[in-house]
Write a structure and sequence with these properties.
mainly alpha; 5 helices; two-stranded antiparallel sheet
Length: about 160
Amino acid sequence: MTPAVRAPSSSPTDRLSRRGSPGGHGPTPGPPVQAPTLAFLVASLGGWFILLEGMILLAGGGSQFEVGFSIPASTVVPLGGVGLSLGLGIIAAGFLLHEVEAYRRSAGMAIVILAALSTLSGGGFIVGLALAVLGGCLAMFLQPIPLYRPSTSWHG
């Protein structure tokens, strides 16, 4: 008598629990994980502060700013554009970090680099710089939490 052979299942959970990827190539898929929401929120809030400072610099482009030292009016508009684009980049990287778990570390590194570059335009009142760096570091170094704990026993 030949033993019964079970056909491979095609449900998503069975594909995730098997060793290797479905095609046999690439990294082994793990269990689904919770999105890094805290890192996303903190980094995006920092990006909004940087974006706000860039918009304020663009709105006041015709005047001269004094913040401990004088900034000529001809450099205020380019600094505002830099702040605006860096703030949008941080927010976009935050959304990428939240939506695609595979890019968590890369998006976190991009957030930290863009936040460091935002010092050129004031760093989002420094609060934006600190929040964006904190969010990027959380994204890079916090381990994602599995949505369920895989069972270690076999119930066959």
